[in-house]
Write a structure and sequence with these properties.
Blueprint lengths: L3 H24 L13 E3 L4 E3 L6 E6 L5 E4 L7 E3 L3 E2 L2 E2 L6 H4 E3 L9 E3 L6 E5 L5 E5 L2 E2 L1 E3 L17 E3 L11
Parallel strand pairs: 3-9
Antiparallel strand pairs: 1-2, 3-4, 5-14, 6-7, 8-13, 10-11, 11-12
């Protein structure tokens, strides 16, 4: 059995530790682990990710140096091209261009799932091959074939007329 003198120092130490932890949380120096992202799946036929509904997803995500950007549900950066047009929407990346820049396609009869992206900013444009591509503020949306999901890549922002797109359709800062 412990002596009464030993319990008091342990209680004091526990109270101090709890106070330090609360202080770190309040000042932002410590945060609880983030909740895991929703489970996403890759659909090879349409080249989009989803929660199982088959619908592509557009998310607004804080990405550090790029600021708030648009991603798909797996966290892959989305891009716009200076060669395209927003008014009227037109996609000019075809044939060999799509080997690197994959259009974000909208399967027939589906609507994208949105998180932090205004519905009024989202549209679609027909492509020369008959598929339908999602647009954001009129700009056709693309993935870069070499980007990894989960914002693990810094992107190809500002390279050769390609820019990471913001949730409002603007270009993310190039740094």
């Amino acid at each position: 059995m412990r002596s009464p003198r030993l319990r008091s120092p342990l209680l004091v130490l526990a109270a101090i530790a709890a106070g330090v932890l609360v202080g770190l949380v309040v000042t932002g120096r410590f945060s609880a682990p983030a909740a895991p992202p929703p489970q996403v799946t890759q659909t090879a036929a349409t080249g989009h990710s989803g929660h199982g509904s088959g619908s592509p997803e557009l998310w607004a995500v804080q990405s550090g140096p790029l600021g708030v950007v648009a991603t798909d549900g797996a966290g892959r950066l989305l891009y716009r091209s200076d060669a395209d047009s927003a008014s009227p929407p037109a996609s000019h990346c075809t044939d060999a261009c799509t080997d690197t820049w994959k259009p974000m396609l909208l399967p027939s009869g589906q609507q994208p799932e949105l998180l932090g992206v205004e519905k009024s900013k989202v549209g679609q444009v027909g492509r020369p091959d008959g598929t339908v591509q999602l647009t954001l503020a009129g700009w056709p949306l693309y993935y870069n074939a070499t980007d990894e999901p989960g914002l693990t890549s810094a992107g190809h922002n500002g390279q050769n007329g390609w820019s990471v797109i913001t949730p409002t359709g603007g270009k993310a800062p190039t740094g």
